[in-house]
Amino acid sequence: MKKLILITFLIFAITAKSQEAKSLTLKEAITYALENKADAKKAKLKVENSEYQIQEVRSRALPQISANGGLTYNPILQTTFLDAGSFGGEKGKTIEANFGQKWSSTAGLSLTQTLFDQSVFTGLKAAKSTREFYQINDQLTEEQVIERVANNYYQVYVQRQKLNVLDNNYVNTNKVKDIIKGQFDNGLAKKIDLDRILVKISNINTQRQQVLNAVQLQENALKFYIGMPIQTKIIIPQTEFQVTPQAISEIPNTENRTEYLLLKKQEQLLTYQKKADQAAYYPTLNLSAGYNYIGQGPKLPWGAKPSDGVYWSDFSSIGLNLKVPIFSGFSTRAKVRQADVNLRSIKEDLNDTKLGLDLAYENAKIQIDNSIITIGNQKTNAQLAQDVLSNTRNNYIQGLASLTDLLDAENSLTEAQNNYTSAILDYKLAEIQLIKSKGELRTLINN
Fold first, then answer.
1. What's the CATH code of the domain at 436?
2. Phi and psi, residue 433, nearest 5°
3. Most buried among 15, 237, 298, 434, by the most CB within 10 A?
4. Does pLDDT of 447 surpass 80?
């Protein structure tokens, strides 16, 4: 029985620990995402894979060595008819001769070495640029993960703040209900007033359940975007949402942005592609060499000796192979022109991307300014709504205000608080865009 109690206690403790909520700051959420999210992992795998691509291209410039072997059985040997005079016999007389042996077996080594191939040299440069491309792409993927996590992180905050507003509203409305119920019990309030406040409480409960559902959905989305198990409970510290106005400096150099650098690297790769197509105009020169051993006879050569009629001999060769392109049906010219069109196209993408990055910076800066003004206004409105509600509640208790006035004051406070929360969200989202436009998203985890 003691063991059973102990096991039950341990299971309960483990379960309770697994259900313990995890405090999650923005920095921790981003760091977790970069370590666990599939997008970030796959980008790093592409960088690793680029090393193998370089090795593959480099292999074309290294010697290619292979071993070969074969076994042939000739059931019927080829017959050739020759003039006997060629062998000192009677001229004009034809003799019949069989060439070859019933069995033959070869084994050897062959080597080929590229001495000159312009496409190989260009391919090596392109492979190194491909590695740099994936390194930049890895950086861009990290920035995209950071942006996505930060946006969803602040969305969770908004939903939780709305839940807090409803919870406070629920507590305050219950206090009013207790007052009205006391007045009703003493004959100082009408039943319709009590019914109205009960309806109000029921509506708050319904709204709270809807917002609670939205909170859970948004938290699940956040956990998905950072690669965290959905069952994990999280707590977001309130200090994460202090409004600290960003310093608006001079327009950042968009040519240093990751998106722009990635396109520039693509342009470089397309340039190498054009050079690789042009390499088809150049001749190629290869060295080849081989050494072989051959056994022939009427029997299977393996393990046989000259006494069995099987003889072994070796032979070798060394050669140079030169290939000079003369006419390819304009295929090479077409490929070069296609590559040129692709280069012109990506130049347009570069111009458009630079314009879009400049636009994003200006829009973020405007949104930051507007959000700061809106936050100030909504904070003042929320404070005024709180004062109005306090005065209206006191007046209602003293019989100087109607229940309608009190309910309207509560609704106004709820709306003002939600507007203030939404204004902070707008600011935070604009702040992320401003940081992104300056190419400083990684500062969210370095600070």
1. 1.20.1600.10
2. -65, -35
3. 434
4. no
